[in-house]
Amino acid sequence: MAARHRGERPAGASRLDVAVQVARLCLVTDAFLGQCCYRAKVGLQRRDVPFLPRLLHRLAVTRGQIAIGDPVVVAPGVFIPHGQVVVDGITTIGARSVIGPFTTIGLVAGQVVGPTLGERVRIGTGVRVLGPVTLGDDASVGANAVVVDDVPAGTTVVGIPARPLGRGTDDHPEDRPEDARA
């Protein structure tokens, strides 16, 4: 199937096409507007602009319902499909990660270092990732999980506290072969 039929942007799209697409996404989804405000805020802070970064942060919080603190590093390609996301502390989010709504990624009492998320990490709805933990590349966190320990690369965790998802043999006896049942 050709890229134009799938709605993908051709590799050689003009700057005007990109600007129109960004403006459309900002109007359609508040969360994207929040991400754009965050990116603009970071760019202005690097240039030592005094007032506008704080204004952009307030706009991201009020319109996009996304609060991303100053020490947070968000790599390119991170996608936040919906709002109600709080990220704080000395935290890093890897490229091409997806963060679901109603998510908190941040600190525990007495800590200033927050979580480190690898590349392509998927965070479900209502997740809490707390403290100086590391989520490896391609890790997934199920909805409403609370992550307080490191998650190895490629692992899916669920529950409170989050634990690696079993392969079905321990949790569902009906999935086991007949000779493996006790």
Write out the strand line-up for the largest beta sheet, numbering strands in chain order. 1-3-6-9-12
Tell me the strand percentage band: 15-25%
Helical content (DSSP H or I, runs of 4+):
25-40%
Give the low-pLDDT segments: 1-6
- Count of individual beta strands: 14
CATH homolog superfamily of the largest domain: Hexapeptide repeat proteins
Summarize model confidence as the mean pLDDT: 85
Structure commentary:
Helices cover 25% and strands 21% of the residues. With 182 residues, the protein is an alpha/beta fold. The chain has 2 domains: 1-64, no CATH class; 67-182, 3 Solenoid (UDP N-Acetylglucosamine Acyltransferase, domain 1), CATH 2.160.10.10. A 5-stranded parallel β-sheet has the order 1-3-6-9-12. The protein has a 5-stranded mixed β-sheet with strand order 5-8-11-13-14, with no helix packed on it. Strands 2-4-7-10 form a 4-stranded parallel β-sheet, with no helix packed on it. A hairpin with a 4-residue loop joins strand 13 (156-158) and strand 14. The longest helix is centred in the first third of the chain and has 17 residues, at 30-46. The radius of gyration is 19 Å and the shape is globular.
